């Protein structure tokens, strides 16, 4: 009997969907807003980021980015500042409240990752990371998408 080989890309997609669902449940249980997670991941580095950067890096539509940032600003997690070098641009930065929220997200993610990875050897995780990064780079090249942050 011939062994069936699953598509690596389909498995990566399934892994992503299952992980997102798990994180949705965990963030909801923790009283956090899952929608904000990718924004906090970008902003947690401390740099102010303009909306175009969010669109490029997150691969979300500009209206989705704008709406989410409005909600985050109303919730007190971010502040918007006019770019000193280009007055037409507005940059986004985390407030102290946003930094605390980000710490909660990171702690939750670490707990979930620890549980997921506990039976997977480090070498296998490193190999998987290497393959996934190659796939992301190739997919973005084929699709003509930016991948400078990969």
Protein architecture, described:
The model has no long low-confidence stretch (mean pLDDT 88). The protein has a 3-stranded antiparallel β-sheet with strand order 1-3-2. It is globular. The protein has 6 helices and 3 strands, in the order H-H-E-H-H-E-E-H-H. 10% of the residues are buried. It has a single domain, classed as Arc Repressor Mutant, subunit A, CATH 1.10.10. By secondary structure, the protein is mostly helical.
CATH topology: Arc Repressor Mutant, subunit A
Integer count of domains: 1
Characterize the main sheet: 3 strands, antiparallel
Strand order of the largest sheet: 1-3-2
Work out the radius of gyration: 18 Å
Ends apart, CA distance between termini: 40 Å
Question: Would you identify the CATH H-level superfamily?
Answer: Winged helix-like DNA-binding domain superfamily/Winged helix DNA-binding domain
Give a nutshell description of this structure:
By secondary structure, the chain is mostly helical.
Write the layout of secondary structure elements.
Blueprint: H1 8-29, H2 37-43, E1 49-50, H3 51-58, H4 62-74, E2 78-82, E3 90-94, H5 96-117, H6 122-143
Antiparallel strand pairs: 1-3, 2-3
